[in-house]
Amino acid sequence: MTIEIVLATEGLNRSFGALRVTQDVSFQLPRGARYALIGPNGAGKSTFINLLTGVLMPSSGRITLHGEDITRVPSQDRVRRGLVRTFQINTLFPHLTPLEATVLAIAQRHGLCVNPFKRLSGCYPEIDEAHELLNRFAFGADSERPTHELAYGRQRLLEIVLALAAEPKVLLLDEPAAGVPQQESAEIFEALDALPEDIAVLFIEHDMDVVFRFAQRITVLVAGQILCEGTPEEIADHPQVREVYLGDGEDV
Predict the structure, then answer these.
(1) Angstrom distance (rounded) from CA 129 to CA 2
(2) Of 48, 38, 68, 41, nearest in space to 218 by CA
(3) CA 16, CA 224: separation in Å to the nearest integer?
(4) Which of 10, 106, 162, 227 could disulfide-pair with 62, CB 3.0 to 4.6 Å?
(5) Which helix (H) or strand (E) holds 65?
(6) What is residue 175's predicted lDDT score, i.e. its pLDDT?
(7) Alpha helices for the chain (secondary structure H)
């Protein structure tokens, strides 16, 4: 059976002056995959995600999405093509409800201009779709509460809901459970585990229990280079991974 590669890089490099933070990274993400990206503090994981999404432009190398070269394509156009991300730090509107925020995300996908600080009159199809999406993640009455009143784990889950409102084919998650209590992080990854099978997921995570439970395949990044790739079992047995992986901390 032919494996469909939805996102790939070839010889990707990024430098900040004399500092090389991404070095000759070639990577492939198949359709429907659940892959993890791990590495010690300063390995360049977030930089790599920023290159994939167009927040940063590479110094050299190539990025393809569904076989098309997107190396110089702006971030917003990558989202329209199905490449969507979440961030390490919460980027939500704190005074909007999850329903309002989700309706706005859906309206944006439909090309509608909606003022987030006015009533969402006339957005009935978007409201119905938002309810359906929020119900999939058991928001219930929380969908009508201001976001800042929600537990932090629910806020991180809302970020994933908003990303899904863009109908991604590739979902990039930069530490989706960062700062979330363990019992709430389990809810986040249970929700990710239930995503449609055609969505490819690449996530950065420092909790190795979560990584080994959720990821089908793991890429280890060290000093901006791929050290190794493999199944969770192969990575767990890799002697250099045991040596270099330093655990928690912010990334480059």
Answers:
(1) 34
(2) 38
(3) 12
(4) 10
(5) strand 60-65
(6) 87
(7) 45-53, 75-80, 98-109, 124-136, 152-165, 182-193, 208-214, 232-236, 239-244
d(CA 22, CA 43): 9
**Secondary structure (DSSP) of 101-135:** HHHHHHHHHTT----TTS--TT-HHHHHHHHHHHH
* Burial of 209: CB neighbours in 10 Å, binned 0-12, 13-18, 19+: exposed
Asked if residues 188 and 180 have their Cβ atoms less than 8 Å apart, the reply is yes
Distance CA 87, CA 17 (A): 25
Q: How far apart are CA 195 and CA 82, in angstroms?
A: 15
Q: Report the chain's terminal Cα–Cα distance, integer Å.
A: 38
Please give the pLDDT value at position 120.
61
For 152-178, how does the pLDDT look when each residue is reduced to its tens digit (9 = 90+)? Answer: 889 989 999 999 999 999 999 988 888
pLDDT on residue 173: 92
Q: Which residues fall within 8 angstroms of residue 237, CB to CB, at 6 or more apart? A: none
- Length reported for the chain: 252
Please name the residue that has the structure tokens 């994981």.
45
